[in-house]
Amino acid sequence: MALICVPLVEKTVEEDVALANSLDCDLVEVRLDYLKNASGVEKLAGIKKPVIATCMPAWEGGLFGGSEEERVSLLESCLPYCRYVSVELKTDEDLRQNLIKKAKKRNVKVIVAFHDFKSTPSFEDIVETLDDEERVGADIVKVAFMANDHADVLTLLRALVERKKSVPVIALSIGEKGKMSRILAPVFGSYLTFASASKDKVSAPGQMALDEMKKFMTLCDENRKS
């Protein structure tokens, strides 16, 4: 069964830790941009499963409105307490590459990500974005695009299947029409999929709750074995 990651969208680090340790999932994504106060990140060491640290900027659909220097510095402060760090491809090049270098020194896996909450580009553009992410040093490449129709989902899945992979890929479609990608993408090779802790804790449109996702993933796994 594919890995299931739950984004944590609590307001304090303490709440993130408590929720993470109550969830039956494979790993969690700490959304630092949701925190009211990012002090005390060392408490993330109390999470008893693998952690992805990310801080999505407002310019890419997140909540962080500070400077890029502040955002990347916050991610750097989490490196001792996470197994993965996620940084946007469009991050200032010098800041991005410095973060990647520091992460790799700590053996923290780097996810380089690109999100578009408005549309899905062409197959060729998706492949180019994934190639660019790998080129800048990603250990794992990630794309997430708004699906305005089911054809958009098929375009994403085609890129996931047909692109030559030398590093793991995370790919998903956003929105209600992209919901099925959260189940299908892992079947077609996505490294992981995302599910919310509950229906009222979603971090992106179309995200399924963890219990619902696990039911669907179990059904898919059983069907593949039969």
Structure description:
This protein is of the alpha/beta class and 226 residues long. It has a single domain (3-225), classed as TIM Barrel. The protein has seven helices and eight strands. The protein has helices at residues 13-20, 68-77, 93-105, 123-135, 150-162, 181-187, 210-225, and strands spanning 3-8, 27-31, 51-54, 84-88, 109-116, 140-146, 169-174, 192-194. Helix 4 (123-135) links the parallel strand 5 (109-116) and strand 6 (140-146). Helix 2 (68-77) runs parallel beside helix 3 (93-105) and helix 4 (123-135) packs across helix 5 (150-162). The longest helix has 16 residues, at 210-225.
Percent in helix: 25-40%
Distance between the termini: 14 Å
Strand content: 15-25%
Order of strands, widest sheet: 7-6-5-4-3-2-1-8
CATH fold naming:
TIM Barrel
Give me the count of strands: 8
Poorly predicted runs are none
The CATH class label is Alpha Beta
The SS-based structural class is alpha/beta
The CATH homologous superfamily corresponds to Aldolase class I
Outline type: globular
Overall average pLDDT: 94
Rounded to an integer, what's the Rg over CA atoms?
16 Å
Number of domains: 1
How many distinct helices? 7
- CATH architecture group name: Alpha-Beta Barrel
Major β-sheet annotation: 8 strands, parallel
- Series of secondary-structure elements, N-terminal to C-terminal: EHEEHEHEHEHEHEH
